């Protein structure tokens, strides 16, 4: 098993990019005239729920008839945003854990770590009746103690720098299309105001469907690939990653 330890000083946290994740970028190109193979991908969204961008994201997923996985922050869950989270669940999306406070958890003690997870788990269970089964560490900041203390598998993903406003819709879409590969988990954000990622999906989803992609939740991805999530790993590309090693 590969252990990945990334220590990020608090001051450097904002500089961290998704390149810190384990997993490989997709290398396959699929010209339109090539025989289309069946592939699966996950659209995952961090930092909700909210009553604005999360709603737009769900509308976009619904428009294209696909599902995704929402990694929610406990402190963002209230009566109103919980209704949006419930809508996602009812659409067939899954709701996963992205901590309570969205802090750099690599500096926390075991008790604090467990409290972060338990808070969000219990609110999600309260509102939708199902507990999260995966965890995405805020800022992809991890420590050995986090792997020891948190029972959920850690999920990373392949992003498109969509937390930076100056990265345009077209650039986001282009990055996603370039990195697409069978088993990929796209790491995107539905924080308030991130409309450019919503718009990027209007480009990306149809294009990837043409290339033979089906969009599933993160739980379904592991099931379909027959992969058991491993402790001490930040999963980004499921199935292909295992096959490549
Ligand atoms: Zn986040």
Would you write up a description of this structure?
The protein has 245 residues and is of the alpha/beta class. The chain has a single domain (37-244), classed as Glycoside hydrolase/deacetylase (TIM Barrel). It is built from 8 helices and 7 strands. It has helices at 53-63, 79-91, 110-128, 144-149, 169-179, 195-210, 218-225, 240-244; strands at residues 39-46, 69-72, 94-97, 154-155, 184-189, 213-215, 234-235. Strands 1, 2, 3, 5 and 6 form a 5-stranded parallel sheet that branches. Helix 1 packs parallel to helix 2 (79-91), helix 1 runs parallel beside helix 6 and helix 5 runs parallel beside helix 6 (195-210). The structure holds zinc ion. Zinc ion (ZN) binds at residues 46-47, 98, 102, 138.
CATH architecture term: Alpha-Beta Barrel
Strand content: 5-15%
Which molecules are bound in this entry?
Answer: zinc ion
Q: Unreliable segments (pLDDT under 50, ≥5 consecutive)?
A: 1-20, 22-28
The CATH topology is TIM Barrel
Mean pLDDT: 88
Number of helices: 8
Shape: globular
Question: How far apart are the first and last residues' alpha carbons, in Å?
Answer: 11 Å
Q: What's the count of strands?
A: 7
CATH class: Alpha Beta
Please state the CA-atom Rg, rounded to the nearest Å: 17 Å
Short description:
The protein is α/β, with parallel strands linked by helices and 245 residues long.
How are the SSEs placed, and which strands pair?
Blueprint: E1 39-46, H1 53-63, E2 69-72, H2 79-91, E3 94-97, H3 110-128, H4 144-149, E4 154-155, H5 169-179, E5 184-189, H6 195-210, E6 213-215, H7 218-225, E7 234-235, H8 240-244
Parallel strand pairs: 1-2, 1-5, 1-6, 2-3, 4-7
Helix pairs in contact: 1-2, 1-6, 5-6
């Amino acid at each position: 098993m590969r252990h990945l330890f990334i220590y990020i000083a608090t001051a450097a946290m904002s500089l961290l990019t998704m390149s810190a994740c384990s997993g490989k970028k997709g290398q396959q190109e699929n010209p339109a005239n090539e025989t289309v193979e069946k592939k699966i991908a996950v659209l995952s969204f961090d930092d909700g729920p909210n009553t604005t961008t999360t709603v737009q994201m769900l509308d976009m997923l619904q428009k294209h008839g696909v599902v995704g996985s929402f990694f929610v922050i406990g402190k963002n869950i209230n009566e109103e945003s919980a209704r949006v989270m419930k809508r996602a669940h009812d659409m067939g999306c899954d709701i996963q854990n992205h901590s309570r406070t969205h802090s750099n958890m690599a500096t926390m003690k075991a008790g604090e770590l467990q409290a972060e997870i338990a808070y969000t788990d219990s609110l999600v269970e309260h509102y939708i009746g199902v507990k999260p089964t995966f965890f995405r560490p805020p800022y992809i900041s991890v420590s050995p103690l986090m792997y020891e203390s948190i029972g959920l598998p850690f999920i990373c993903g392949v992003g498109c720098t969509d937390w930076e406003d100056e990265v345009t819709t077209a650039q986001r879409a282009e990055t996603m299309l370039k990195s697409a590969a069978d088993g990929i988990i796209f790491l995107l954000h539905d924080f308030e105001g991130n409309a450019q990622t919503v718009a990027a999906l209007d480009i990306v989803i149809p294009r990837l469907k043409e290339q033979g992609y089906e969009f599933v939740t993160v739980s379904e991805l592991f099931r379909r690939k027959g992969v058991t999530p491993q402790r001490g790993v930040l999963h980004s590309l499921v199935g292909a990653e295992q096959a490549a090693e």
